[in-house]
Write a structure and sequence with these properties.
The protein is α+β, with helices and mostly antiparallel strands. It has 3 domains: 94 residues, no CATH class; 129 residues, Jelly Rolls, CATH 2.60.120.1440; 75 residues, Phage tail protein beta-alpha-beta fold (3-Layer(bab) Sandwich). 30% of the residues lie in helices and 29% in strands. The protein contains 8 helices and 18 strands. α1 packs across α3, α2 packs across α3 and α3 crosses α4.
Amino acid sequence: MEQELLFRYFRGETSQEEEERILSWVEASPENRAEFRKAHLLFAGLALYAPAPASDTASPNPRRTLLRIARYAVRTAAAVIVAVGAAYLGKVVYHHSLTAREMSVSVPAGQRMQVTLADGTHVQLNAGTTLEYPVVFSSKSRRVKLSGEALFEVTHDPAHPFIVETFATEIQVLGTKFNVLADSGNGLFSTTLVEGRVKVTSRKDPAESIILQPNDRVVLEHGRLYKERVSDFDDLCWTEGLIHLKKMPFDELMAIFERAFDVRIEIERETMPQINVMSGEVRISDGVDYALHVVQLVSTGFTYTRDEKSNVIVIR
C-alpha cells in the first residue's frame, strides 16, 4: 500500500472509496496489518518531530528530509506511541486489530494528567491514578478501567454506552460529566454526578445498582452502595490543584496527601485526630508542610516529623 495514501488516511483526507480500499487491504493478511501499524507509527513520529520550516527561501529536499525524520522516528518509537497514540490512533477506523490493543496511563504521585480518548471523551486524572483503555473502542461499547480518581466528560453517543470498570463497580453512562474515586488499597469508592445520568452497579452483587441524577453521589460502605445528595462539588477541586478540607476521617485525608504530595505518611497514634472544619481548601503547590500546618489548626491536634531523605512523614 502506498505510504502517501496511508498518511492521507491518518489525516482524514481520504475519500470513501479510498478508505474501503485501505480497510480491505488491512483485513487481507497479518503482514498488511503489521505494515499498517508501522506506517501509523512513522506518521505519528513525523507529526511530532518534524522540524520547523527553514527561514530562507531555498526548498529542502523532501525525500531526504523524510528519510532523516523517519530514522529519528523509529529510534523514538516507544516515546511517540505513548505521547500521541490516543490522539492519532483514535481516528483510525480499523477496529478488528486495534480494539484488542490496550493503552495504560499511570500518573505519578504529586502530578495530574489529562487524556482525550478515541471518541473525544476528556479525562482528568488525579495523582496516583491508572487508566486503561483500548486504542479504538469496539463497535458495541466504550469500556475503560480505572484505579484512582478521575473526572470524566463523556462524549454523547447513545448507541455506544460508556462503561468505567473499578474494583467495586461498573459505571454506565451515555453522555455525562462525573467524578470517580476508586482506591482499592483503602477500600474507598465514590461517584459524584455533575451532569447527565449514570448507572452504578456493584461488581460484588450485580443485582445492586443505583441510578444517579445531577448532584447525586454514591459511596461504598461496608460492601454496599449508598446514594446521597451533594450541595456542591468541592470534592472536584483537585482538578484545579486544590485539596478540599472537610469533616472526614483523618487517615483518609492523609491518604489523599500521600498521592498529592508524593510522600509516605505513617500514623503512630492510638486515636485519630478529628478534623473540625466544614469547608476549606489547601493548594497543592504550597507543599505538604503548609498543608499539614493548616490541618493542625483545624483539627484536635497532632505533631509530625519529616525525614527529607526517605520522604517519610510520621504523625504522632
